Amino acid sequence: MAEVEKKTAKKTEEKKDKKPNAFVRFCKRVVKFVKDCKGEIKKIVWPTPKATFKNTGVVLVTIIVLGLFVFLLDTAFMNLLGLVMDVAQV
């Protein structure tokens, strides 16, 4: 009888050490992820409308300046290529 009790005690100890199944672990990780996301979202500081308008202006000006720069480079290189091609044909 003592041997049977030892075996059952061993089995119950093994069951306690056993990890929960994969679905339960997955669900726990998802719940933890959602809670962490909720906490991070509370930390967000949204910009004021004035700051948003100012930043939008800066972005638009930067795009226009870079666009003009690329246009000028393209025009200069096309003219240079035209000169080289005209020389090559003669």
TrEMBL record:
GO molecular function, one term: protein transmembrane transporter activity
Keywords carried by this UniProt record: Cell membrane, Membrane, Protein transport, Translocation, Transmembrane, Transmembrane helix, Transport
Membrane-related topology note: Single-pass membrane protein
Location relative to the cell: Cell membrane; Membrane
Signal peptide coordinates: none
TM ranges: 58-85
GO cellular component, one term: plasma membrane
GO biological process, one term: protein transport by the Sec complex
InterPro entries xref list: SecE_bac (IPR005807), SecE_sf (IPR038379), Translocase_SecE/Sec61-g (IPR001901)
Record's subunit section: Component of the Sec protein translocase complex. Heterotrimer consisting of SecY, SecE and SecG subunits. The heterotrimers can form oligomers, although 1 heterotrimer is thought to be able to translocate proteins. Interacts with the ribosome. Interacts with SecDF, and other proteins may be involved. Interacts with SecA.
Family listed: Belongs to the SecE/SEC61-gamma family.
Function: Essential subunit of the Sec protein translocation channel SecYEG. Clamps together the 2 halves of SecY. May contact the channel plug during translocation.
Record PANTHER family: PROTEIN TRANSLOCASE SUBUNIT SECE (PTHR33910:SF1)
Matches recorded under HAMAP family: SecE
UniProt protein name: Protein translocase subunit SecE
Species for this entry: Candidatus Acutalibacter pullistercoris
